[in-house]
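Quick check before the chapter quiz. The format below is the same one you will see on the exam, so make sure you can read both the input and the output lines.
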Amino acid sequence: MNFLSDPTLLALALALPAGATLAIAMLGRWPNLREAATLLAALLLFGVVMTLLAHVLAGARPELHLASVAPGLTLALKIDPLGMLFAAVAATLWIVNSLYSIGYMRGNDEPRQTMFYACFAIAISATMGLAFSGNLFTLFVFYEVLSLSTYPLVSHKQSPAAMRAGRVYLLTLIGASMVLLLPAIVWTGLVAGTLDFRTGGILAGKLGDNALALLFALFVFGTAKAAVMPLHRWLPAAMVAPTPVSALLHAVAVVKAGVFTILKVSVSVFGIETLQTSGASQWLVYVAGFTIVAASIIALRADDLKRRLAYSTIGQLSYIVLAAALASPVAVIGAGLHIAAHAVSKITLFFAAGSAYTAEHVTRVSQMDGIGRRMPWTMGAFAIGALSMIGLPPTAGFLGKWFILDAATGATDWFAVGVILVSTVLNAAYFLPILTRAFLRPANGPRQEAPLAMVIALTVTAAGTIGLFLFPGVPFRLASMIMGG
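Here is the expected output.
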């Protein structure tokens, strides 16, 4: 796609998944064609994003002005390394999630499949817009579109529990963004005179230390998608949704949009140097540390498998938030790497959980005795994802955690160091018993796997979890370029 200009490619990154929504709706009566349209759009988006990735690695910073809403308020796109990393992760995982969804939705005879694929495509389009936002206003618009487009997915089953989870989801995310995030953006615009993202930030010398800390708090808690406690309950509540939706929430888009926003604001609104000198982010070290440890303890006690994975996500996300709070170049590299590592690892875990449900209707850890012998591909992939979440080589989860630990040690922040070490032990404590149950206890039943499309998808992401450790070049280059814009 090198024959297309960068602005055209930027427009296509949003238009392809948005256009796929219309095609999916029109082809709803023909499931094979509907799902072919989904896969084709995912593959085309991947091609567009990989072309843009090559240009960004070569030093280009493509821009596109979409619209002027009012004086000082423009919808504008601009790619930087952090946004490129997020977009590359989302575009890649849309392909495997679409393949997995075909097996899952058909295997479980889920209702309203056309709406599912259509809303998923809108969410991917919003994710691309958010990743490539050129200013806070554009980011806010796509952040809200992402919340609204994923609400029907969370409440997909339309059972009383699903509808209740959908209300919690929407009220928490929209409520926090309207009450906290939007005022933070308005305050920033009034103080800085601009909402544009800039390398080094736009707030240096604009506010006192206490005001900077308060503004930073509004951004952090206003971005409830990051699930920093106490604004985290929407995430485990949303586990009532089908597993491909859980994968979207945890790995592809929603929670990644939250931590991406916090990291983006830290680097391109406040500036790492401003956060360091003002101490405006120091309080977040303790909040993120508490979230990491508390979520890990809750996960340790959860028998429901998806609930355990949900609280694992809450803790793992706060590693990225902790890195932003440490406010150093090494921490930012660690945060960038962990965005990619957590995405590919956690989607593997949810794929495996959905496969176990589809093939054997297993939903609880206590039901998993011998399942590794009956479903070796599924649970082999789960084991790789679990080791990555613990942070053990040769899996991707080791990389980001190592850099964050190095940053904490370099800053002599022994609280952060302690949090990382204690949480690593807790991660092992809630994942390893699953593996011992699955592989070391007798298998009661015949060997069987989920539908082939699901097994292929989880095998690919498990391989990617190891591949990202062995060949981290591209995400490491992007993470290393974040501070330079």
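If your answer matched, good. DSSP finds 20 helices and two strands in the chain.
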